[in-house]
Amino acid sequence: MTKERLKSPRARLFVALDLPERVRDGLVAWQHGVLTDPALRPVAASALHVTLCFLAYQPERDIERIAEVVQAVESRPIEISFAAEPAPVPPNRPRLFAVDAESEAAIALQAELSDALVAERFYKPEKRDFWPHVTVARVKPSKRSASDRRGRRRGRPVRVEAPPGPLPAELLEPFGAVRVTLYRSLLRPTGAEYVSLAALDLSSDGRG
Predict the structure, then answer these.
(1) Neighbours of 43 (CB within 10 A)
(2) Of 82, 20, 15, which Cα lies nearest the Cα of 52?
(3) Which has the closest alpha carbon to 83: 103, 106, 99?
(4) Which of 131, 115, 7, 93 is nearest to 57 (CA)?
(5) φ, ψ of residue 102 in degrees (nearest 5)
(6) CB of 18 closer than 8 Å to CB of 183
(7) Within 136-203, where are the H helices?
(8) Model-level pTM greater than 0.90?
(9) What pLDDT digit, counting tens, does each position of 148-200 carry?
(10) Half-sphere exposure for 130 (CA within 13 Å, toward CB)
(11) CA dist., res. 142 & res. 136, Å (int)
């Protein structure tokens, strides 16, 4: 990589599946009812999506080309079904809770998109298998120790005494994702802000 490329403005990018508004609203209502443990922080409605490919920091001048790759994917119905019980990640001392977004179509789409982005050198796939999910809550970190501060590490997540309960029945009905979106993530003191840079509307299967 040339020095010129390193010095060029860079953007933190990822590609995600957007959920229908009614599903996001349902998740927000559920969060308000079940996230009673003070260690848990609900994920904002704008961040309730299924991440397909996290591209990390990319030169801003490449955004248009990345958008072209994303929008070249064939539009198709992507049916998703939520698992009832939120999963702790990792299980023994969770730093977040996520809902499984079960979808063979989403897995196939992610593989296609991953291959296209890899071919253009915009993406380095993770070694672990793709897991379609929606992060619904994060766990507050404990106070940092002196060694954490020296290493600029966050404190360990505090223990969660009351994990979130199951999703309501209406959120367990299959639904269709509405679009694939290329997002820019802006890190703010109040949390990440997501800006849509390009999108591909997905064909509907009749499930809203």
Answers:
(1) 22
(2) 15
(3) 99
(4) 7
(5) -65, 125
(6) no
(7) 146-150
(8) no
(9) 544 455 678 999 999 999 999 999 999 999 999 999 999 887 778 999 999 99
(10) 24
(11) 20
Indicate the helix (H) or strand (E) that contains 34.
Answer: helix 21-34
CB 136 within 8 A of CB 164: yes
Dihedral (CA of 163, 168, 169, 173) sign: negative
> Which class for 95: exposed (0-12), middle (13-18), buried (19 or more C-beta within 10 A)?
middle
Token pair of 33, please? 């009812």
Element (DSSP H or E) covering residue 107: helix 104-119
CB atoms closer than 10 angstroms to residue 165:
14
How many Cα atoms sit within 13 Å of 17 on the Cβ side? 33
State how far the alpha carbon of 36 is from the alpha carbons of 39, 85, 120, in Å: 9, 16, 45
Token pair in block for residue 23: 């599903």
